[in-house]
């Protein structure tokens, strides 16, 4: 860490939970952010500002006018451009030392597995339930922490899947073996600041996991009701019949 880094991250270094050792961890960390929309915007901005060493941005969509109400990493000048390229430019203006890899594609199967294998943590900011399940599968299989969030209307939620925690449940455990849920803000609506609230919490959770200071961060769904400004937490357990994380029975 050079003198410029010491000055830049001084407010982190003052924290006993971070200190020099912790900031060094962040500077060496590799994170994938999947989805550069409402949630991915604040996640990307805060992780870039916090000193994450390498960020891979994944999204196959382009910026359109309807995005600008809530997707704060993009601007009017970015209309029609790939979201990953628009986000990469914004992040590079915040932190020129950050290594950014933009992937303007939807990753599945082996390609998604390869992405997960190459990072220290994944932040899922997608709005597609099937995609979330696929990301969960890849992270469980690759033994990498997954920080997953969702926001719709005036509501949001967050959960962390950490396959390195013994008996920790995964995203699939929350919804059951035959989960089939699909809602998105394009058809249901979302108030702009709610994605900032949940996105900021996702970024904080990613930092806690990377720093190794997260405690009791698995098996817990955190929800926020923007109508009443109330938070709730719900515990859930690993399912013995989960098709993703259940331990196979011995023959």
Number-wise, the strands total 8
Count of domains = 1
Structural class: alpha/beta
| Rg for CA atoms | 18 Å
The CATH superfamily appears as NAD(P)-binding Rossmann-like Domain
Which range best describes the helical content: under 10%, 10-25%, 25-40%, 40-55%, 55-70% or over 70%? Answer: 25-40%
- CATH architecture, by name, is 3-Layer(aba) Sandwich
- Percentage of β-strand residues: 15-25%
Topology:
Elements: H1 3-8, H2 10-13, H3 19-28, E1 30-34, H4 40-50, E2 54-58, H5 83-94, E3 99-103, H6 109-117, E4 121-124, H7 129-142, E5 146-152, E6 155-161, H8 171-175, H9 185-188, H10 192-211, E7 220-225, E8 230-235
Parallel strand pairs: 1-2, 1-4, 2-3, 4-5
Antiparallel strand pairs: 5-6, 6-7, 7-8
Helix pairs in contact: 4-5, 4-10, 6-7
Describe this structure in words.
By secondary structure, this protein is α/β, with parallel strands linked by helices. It has a single domain, classed as NAD(P)-binding Rossmann-like Domain (Rossmann fold). It has ten helices and eight strands. It has helices at 3-8, 10-13, 19-28, 40-50, 83-94, 109-117, 129-142, 171-175, 185-188, 192-211, and strands at residues 30-34, 54-58, 99-103, 121-124, 146-152, 155-161, 220-225, 230-235. The protein has an eight-stranded mixed beta sheet with strand order 3-2-1-4-5-6-7-8, sandwiched between helices. A hairpin with a 2-residue loop joins strand 5 (146-152) and strand 6 (155-161). Helix 4 (40-50) runs parallel beside helix 5 (83-94), helix 4 crosses helix 10 (192-211) and helix 6 crosses helix 7. The longest helix has 20 residues, at 192-211. The radius of gyration is 18 Å and the shape is globular. It starts with a helix and ends in a 16-residue tail after the last strand. The relative contact order is 0.14.
């Amino acid at each position: 860490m050079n003198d410029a880094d010491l000055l830049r991250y001084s407010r982190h270094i003052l924290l006993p939970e971070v200190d020099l050792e912790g900031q060094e961890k962040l500077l060496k960390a590799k994170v994938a952010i999947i989805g550069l929309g409402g949630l991915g915007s604040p996640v990307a901005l805060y992780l870039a500002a916090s000193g994450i060493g390498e960020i891979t941005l994944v999204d196959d969509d382009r910026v359109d006018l309807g995005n600008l109400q809530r997707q704060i990493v993009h601007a009017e000048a970015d209309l029609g451009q790939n979201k990953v390229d628009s986000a990469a430019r914004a992040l590079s203006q915040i932190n020129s030392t950050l290594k950014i890899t933009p992937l303007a594609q939807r990753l599945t199967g082996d390609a998604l597995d390869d992405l997960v294998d190459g990072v220290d943590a994944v932040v899922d900011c997608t709005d597609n339930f099937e995609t979330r399940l696929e990301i969960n599968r890849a992270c469980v299989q690759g033994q990498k922490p997954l920080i997953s969030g969702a926001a719709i209307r005036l509501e949001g939620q967050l959960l962390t899947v950490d396959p390195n925690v013994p008996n920790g449940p995964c995203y699939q455990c929350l919804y059951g073996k035959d989960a089939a849920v699909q809602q998105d803000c394009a058809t249901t609506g979302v108030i702009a600041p709610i994605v900032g609230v949940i996105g900021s919490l996702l970024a904080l959770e990613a930092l806690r996991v990377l720093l190794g200071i997260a405690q009791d961060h698995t098996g817990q769904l955190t929800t926020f009701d923007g109508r009443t400004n109330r938070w709730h937490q719900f515990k859930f357990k690993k399912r013995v019949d989960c098709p993703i994380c259940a331990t196979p029975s011995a023959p």
